[in-house]
Write a structure and sequence with these properties.
This protein has about 180 residues and is mainly α. It has 2 domains: about 1-90, Rna Polymerase Sigma Factor, Chain: A (Orthogonal Bundle); about 95-180, Arc Repressor Mutant, subunit A, CATH 1.10.10.10. It is about 75% helix and about 0% strand. The chain contains 9 helices and no strands.
């Protein structure tokens, strides 16, 4: 373990000096770990793949900022990866619900967009389970988890406190989970 740390410290020093071979070696020995960090936050592999490329570009640019006296190279790189993924997550937040047009009906819009995929058994099961939810709660779930609306946006839209919205979402997801197991 100590030898591995020394090897990574040496690779970081060489990367800071713009050694491309060292950068390739650093990527080879750390990419799986950093990909795990990124995909753990972003979930979608396509987003994680793109973020990981940017993480290594940042490592290349900032390798000189790494200080082995302050921590391990892998911890420093994991922090770069985590911060990049969290930035993406913040940017991915959808427009606030307040910008949606009045009378916006999430359920009918979703049904039209998803009709093309009707052959997908899992999707049909999910849609059937969503139909079992109260209309207001179904819309809240779709706005939160499909559109990316925040709990605060939903609170304003429904005129309910944020804790109530959290409870709605938690209970609705539990209902969906139970329904999908049947």
């Amino acid at each position: 373990m100590l030898e591995q740390r020394r090897d990574l410290v040496d690779l970081m020093r060489r990367v800071a000096a713009r050694d491309r071979d060292a950068f390739e070696d650093l990527y080879r020995v750390t990419s799986a770990k950093l990909y795990g960090v990124v995909v753990g936050i972003l979930v979608r592999r396509s987003l994680a793949d793109e973020a990981l490329q940017d993480v290594y570009a940042r490592i290349w640019e900032r390798a000189g900022d790494f200080d082995p006296a302050k921590g391990s190279p892998i911890a420093w790189m994991a922090a770069v990866a985590r911060n990049r993924a969290l930035d993406d997550l913040r940017r991915a937040k959808a427009a606030p619900v307040s910008t949606l047009p009045e009378g916006f009906d999430v359920a009918s819009e979703e049904a039209n967009a998803l009709d093309a995929m009707v052959g997908n058994e899992r999707l049909r099961a999910l849609m059937a389970c969503l139909d079992r939810l109260d209309a207001e709660k179904r819309e809240a779930v779709l706005l939160a988890y499909y559109r990316g609306c925040s709990r605060e946006d939903l609170s304003r839209r429904y005129g309910r406190p944020v804790p109530t919205i959290k409870t709605w979402l938690h209970r609705s997801l539990l209902q969906l989970r139970l329904c999908l197991r049947q």
